[in-house]
Amino acid sequence: MEFGSFLLSLGTSAVIFVVLMFLFSWLSRKEGNVSIYYPNRILKGMDPWEGSSLTRNPFAWIREAFTTSEQDVVNLSGVDTAVYFVFLSTVLGIFALSGVLLLPTLLPLAATDHNIKTNARNATDTTSKGTFSQLDNLSMANITKKSWRLWAFLGAVYWVSLVTYFMLWKAYKHVSTLRAQALMSADALPEQFAILVRDIPSPPNGQTQKEFIDSFFREIYPETFYRSLVVTENSKVNKIWGDLEGYKKKLARAEAINASTNKRPTNKTGFLGLVGKQVDSIEYYTELINESVAKLETEQKAVLAEKQQTAAVVFFTDRVTAALAAQSLHCQMVDKWTVTEAPEPRQLIWKNLKIKLFGRIIRQYLIYFLVAVTILFYMIPIVAISAITTLKNLQKLLPFIKPVVDITFIRTILESYLPQIALLVFLAMLPKFLLFLSKAEGIPSQSHAIRAASGKYFYFSVFNVFIGVTLGGSLFETLKIIQKDPNSTVTILATSLPKSATFFLTYVALKFFVGYGLELSRIIPLIIFHLKKKYLCKTEDEVKEAWYPGDLNYATRVPGDMLILTITFCYSVIAPLILVFAVVYFGLGWLILRNQALKVYVPAYESYGRMWPHIHTRILAALFLFQVVMFGYLGIKLFVWAILLVPLVVISLLFGYVCRQKFYGGFQHTALEVASHELKQNPNLEEIFKAYIPHSLSSHKGEDHQFKGAMSRYQDYAAISAA
C-alpha cells in the first residue's frame, strides 16, 4: 500500500467516525429513538436521561462514561461487564506504558539508520508489502544487520514483557476481588444454594430416580439438604410450549389488528399462511391455544413420570454447604455422581446435562479435532482473500476492471479498504458455527459455551487472520520453503511479518474508527427498528422484540479485541507506530462500550468474572508469540544476542503457571470464606427451587415469583431450555 493510500484510509475513517459520533448525539436526543439508545435503563425502570437533559451538549456522554464508577457498571450490567472493562483498561495500560518508552527511543533509532536505501529496498525489510513506504523508515526494517542499535529493540521486548506481567498481575488481583465482593452479596441468589449433579447411576429396584438422589444426599448432608430437581427429557414438551407461546403472540397480534381496524383479520392454515383454508384468525388461534394447553398438561405429566434423566439440580439450605458440596468428591468412582457449581437457571443447556463423563471427554476431543481441521481449511480462503484482493491480482483475474482501477481516486479507495472489508465480512460467518461446536461438547451452561467458543475464535483468528494474512502475499513461495525445511516456520513468519505492517495498521484503524463509530451511532439497529415498528409490529411485545438489544456478545467481541492485541504485540517493536493505533483502539473501546454497557446492552447471563482466566491465558499466549517472533526477527538481523530472549520466554511460561496456581482456584470454585457471609434475610428455598423449573414444566406464573428480579434476568430462559 502506498503511503498516500494509507493516509487517505486513515483520514476517511476518522471523518466517518466524527460524522457518526455527531449523528449519535443528535439521534439519541429524539424521543422516538429512546428505546434504541437507552434500552438497558428502560428495562430497569430508570429515566433514560437520568442526570442529563434533552438539550445536553454532544459530548455529555463522554463525561458520563468517565464519571461512572465501577460499582455502577456492576449494578447496571453485572460483574462480567465490569471485568471486560478491566480487560480493556489493562491492555490500554500495557500499550500506553510500552509506548512511553518505545516511541521516543525506537523511532529515532530507526529513522536515522539507512538499511533500506543501502539494500535497495530489499523485499525482506519492508513494511509495505513490496511498495516502498515512508513508514519503512520508522520501523525495525530500516535497522542495519548486526547494528548496535538492535540492543535497543532487544531491550524493548523486555520492557513490553515486564509491563505486561505487572499489569496482568494487578488485573488478576482486582478481578478476584470483584468476583468475591459480588458472591458475598447479602441478597439470596438461586445458584448459590444449588449444585449440578451429573453421571447419576441407575436407582436400585423399588426406588425412583428422585428418591435415589434424595436419599444419597440426605445421608451425606442430613441437616442442610433441601430437595432435588431431576433433569428430564424436555424436547417434546418444549416444542408444545413453544408452539403455545407462538399462538399467544399471534392471537395478541390478531386482536390488536382487530382493535385498530375494527375488522377481524383472517389467515390461511397451510404452509407459512400462504395456502390452505381461509379462517378467522382470532377464533383459529384461540382454538389452537386451547388444544395446546391440553397437550401441554398431558405431556408435562408424562415427562415427570417417565422421562427422568441421569442428572439433577440439588438444593441446600445454606450457601456454605452448596459451595462445599460443589468442590467435593462424592463417589469413589470419578465417573459417577460428578458435582459442579450450578449455573444460573437461565444458563442451563438442559439437553447436555444427561451426557455421561466419558461421552463428554470423547466429544471434547472430537470437537478439538474438528476445530483444528476448520482452522486448517479456513486458512485456504483467508489466504486466497488476502492474495486476490490486491489490485494487481484482481486485474489478472478480472481484466475488464482495468479501466476502472486506473482512475487514481478509485484505485486509492480500493487499495485502502478492499482487503480489510473482505476479511471482516468473511470472518462474520464463523462465530455461530464455533458456538454450535462448543455446545456439542456437552458443556452445561451458556456462559461456559461462550467462553469455549471465544477461545476457539481467538486461536482461529491468530492462525488464520494474523498468520494467514502475513504469509498470504507469498503463499506459494512459503509452502515450497516449508516443504524443503519444516523447521523454518518461525524464520518465515518473522521475515514475512514486516511486509504486512501497513495492512494491519489500516485494519486496526478501520476497526476503531468505523467499527466503534457504528457501535456508538447504532444506525443499523435504528433503521431496522423503525422499519419493523412501522410495517410489522402490531403489539407492544412485538415492538419490544424489535428494539431489544441483546448483550455485549463476548463470544466475538473478546476474540476480536484479542486479535488486535496479538497484532499490536507482534508489531510493537518492529513498527512501534502501531502502539498509537492500539491505544486509540482500546481507549475508544473503553469509552464507547462503557456508554453502551450502561445504557444499551442487557446482560444475557452472569458468571461473576469467569471469563477472566481465559482472557489472561490468551494475553499470555499473544505475548509468547510476540517473544518467539522477535527472537526469529532478531536472528534474521544476524544479532547474536537474540539468544537473550530465551529466558524471557521461560519467564512468561512461569508467570502463567504462578498466576494459575495463585488465582484460578477462586474462579473455578466459590471460596468458603466468601460463601459464609451472612444474608440480610433467610431465603425462601421453595422460590429458589421454582427458579430452576423450566418454563415448559412450570405451573406458576413468573410475574408472581419472589425472584421476579432474578426471573427478569432469566428472560431468555425459555429459549435456552429449548436449546
TrEMBL record:
Chief localisation class: membrane
CSC1/OSCA1-like 7TM region domain ranges (all copies): 363-633
The CSC1/OSCA1-like N-terminal transmembrane domain, residue ranges: 5-170
Bilayer-spanning residue ranges: 6-27, 82-103, 148-169, 365-388, 417-437, 457-476, 562-593, 614-633, 639-659
Protein's cellular compartments: Membrane
Cross-referenced InterPro entries: Csc1-like, CSC1/OSCA1-like_7TM, CSC1/OSCA1-like_cyt, CSC1/OSCA1-like_N
One GO term describing the cellular component: plasma membrane
Any Pfam family the entry gives: RSN1_TM
Keywords carried by this UniProt record: Calcium, Ion channel, Ion transport, Membrane, Transmembrane, Transmembrane helix, Transport
Domain CSC1/OSCA1-like cytosolic: 192-352
Top-level taxon of the source organism: Eukaryota
GO molecular function: calcium-activated cation channel activity
Membrane topology: Multi-pass membrane protein
Family: Belongs to the CSC1 (TC 1.A.17) family.
PANTHER family: CSC1-LIKE PROTEIN ERD4, PROBABLE MEMBRANE PROTEIN DUF221-RELATED
Record's protein name: CSC1-like protein ERD4
Organism field: Arabis nemorensis
